[in-house]
Every structure is written in C-alpha cells, then in structure tokens.
Hints:
Blueprint: H1 2-29, H2 40-47, H3 53-72, H4 89-165, H5 182-269, E1 272-276, H6 285-296, E2 303-309, E3 314-319, H7 322-328, E4 331-332, H8 336-354, E5 359-362, E6 365-368, E7 371-376, E8 381-384
Antiparallel strand pairs: 1-3, 1-4, 2-3, 5-6, 6-7, 7-8
Helix pairs in contact: 1-4, 1-5, 2-4
Amino acid sequence: MLEQGVGGWNRVRRLWSQSIVARALQISFHPQLRGGGLGEDSGQEREGMPKSPKARKESSKREREEGRMSEEGLNPFRKSSRTERSPSRGEERQSKEIEEKIETVLREIKEDMAGIVEESRARRKELAAAREKEGEQEREDMLKSSEVRKESSKREREEGRTSKEGKNPLRNSSRTRRSPNRSQEENQSKEMDKEMKTTMIREMREEIKTLRKELAAVREENGELRKELATVREEMKGREEKGQLEKADWMKRMEMIEENMEQREKKERKNNVIITGIGAISGNVERGVEEWLEREIGVKVNVKEAFKINKDKMMLAKIENWEQKKNIMLNDDLTKEERETQKKLRELAREERDRGKRVKIGYRKIQINGDWFRWDKRQEKLKKIC
Length: 386
C-alpha cells in the first residue's frame, strides 16, 4: 500500500506541474483568463469528497505557501499591473495555438484527475476493507490472547509447581508481544508528504522562472515587431499624404488644361455661324454661301470656310471677322459646354415665366424681373451680377 501511495503522489505531482505550466501560459497570453484560479476543476472534483482533518491541514498549509509565493513574486496567479495592449495578428495567432494546446493538456489533466479520483476512492474502499479485516483479526487475536492468557496462567501455575521441584529449566517468559505502534507509521507518512510537497514547490518555482524568461523573450520580440509596424505605418502615411498632394496638383493642372482648351475652342468658334435651309450648293461652297447671305439677308461678308453638318440639313460657315458676324445675327456655333449652359438657362427661363416673371436670355446669363444673373459652372447655380 505504501508503494502505491508513493506512485499516486508522483502522478499527482506531475499532473499538478503540467497544469501549473499550462495555466501560467494561458494567463500570460490570454488576458481574459487572468484572475481565474488554477485548480478550479480539481477543486470541483474534490467538492464531492468529504475532507478529513488531515486534508484540511494540508489545504491550510498550501494556502499559506501560496501566500508566501505571492509575496516573493513567484505566484503566477497574481494579476499583472501593466496596462493591456491590443494584440497584433501574430500574437492572436500565437495565442490561439497556445490556447488549443492548453485546452488539450487541460482536457487530459481532467481525464487523469478523474481517473485518480476513482482510483483514490477504490483505494479508500480497499483500505477501509483492510482496516475492517484488520479489526476483525485484532478481535480474533484478542479472543485468542484471552485464551492464551488463560493457558499461560495455567501453564505458569503448572510451571510454578514444577519450578518448586526444579524440574522445568525451559520455562518461557510471561511477557506478551505487542504489535508495532501506529503513530510511528503516521509520522513516517506525514514526513513523506512534507518532503513531496517541498519538492513540488521547488519544481514549480523553477518552472515559473523558466516561463518568465520565455515570456520576457516573447514580449521583447513583440516590442520589436511593434516598432517595425509603427515605422511601416509612418512610411505609408507619408506616401499617402504625398500622393494626395500630387493628386491635388494633377487635378488643378487638368482643370487649367480643360479651361485652356475651352477658351481655345471658344475662340475658334467665335466667328462661326450655323445656316439652315440653304439647300445644296454646287461649285465653290464658300462663294455660294456669300451669295446666299447677300441675297437672303442683304449682308455682304467674306466666308473663309463652309461645310455641311448634320446630314446636309445645316451649313457651318466661318466668317472673316467679328464685325461681319454681328451683322448676320444668326445662331452662334457654341461649344458643348456652352450649349449645355444655354440649355439650362432656357429651362430656368421657362420655369420663371410659368411663375409669372419677366425673363430674358443672353449669352451665359439671364435677366429675371430686371436683375441679371450669370450661370456659375462650378457651383451649378445662378449668381447675381452686381
């Protein structure tokens, strides 16, 4: 029985050490588990078992030992005073792997502890049966001893008689033999338990020191990774700011180019007129347009260039100068942006007339009840002309 008890203690000590290591790793890498006490599962397993005075003494002694460990800074269950930081992706992945390993170890520990509890109960039953058997044996021995004492007293009386006659030199001693003292066995068991606890505490301290060194190395590595990440973020931020500045510069340049192109196109179309209903012209088109304008309108102009547009239904003519164009008073050849602006002005004029207001349309402007308004291209609304 003593050898079985020692083997059980060694197994409990190994499982206790593994659970301490697993719990220390879990507390270090998983902030949400800080504050949870190690041994809760084993404590729940023990709740269903009655505690003997010996177990209560061991529990109070273990609590005093843990209190002393926390004062020396060796208690892994003490909460850290350092502020929590948001984990990075690498830390989260590492913590998940560690959590999976810890869960596997804890599951195995729970299964082993359950087996140990069952084995302990079976051993207790065996011990109770052995003690009961020993009690029966003692009672039988007591009955036998009473008979032996009777026989011994009878033999002593007989030997007394013979001793008087000097005929029995081989008489046995009248002293009875006693069984070994039980208190001595209990003292030996207590000393062995004390030595095992001391060994377990020493091993726990060494393992905690090793874990602290490993955690310090991991934290140092995480600090370096954070610095590198901060540097990369600063570089990306600088590139984004530079890219935004370059984008704003390019947008400004594009607007200037568009304005220049609009002005150039507007200048090229300034002296152009659109003529409808002119019909087909044979021979020199420019000469034919000049004759048609002189015949139909009564204005003599010089046409630099003329050609058909819109499937031969209209004619575009480029007049030599602005003064000659003003005398014609036909439709202007507008750019796409100018045509859109004039279209919006016509729509606004229609709405204002429906409201009963007096409206007059000009080039890029509109008069409403005597007040002139200019169409603002950027703000997409009318702006009063002072």
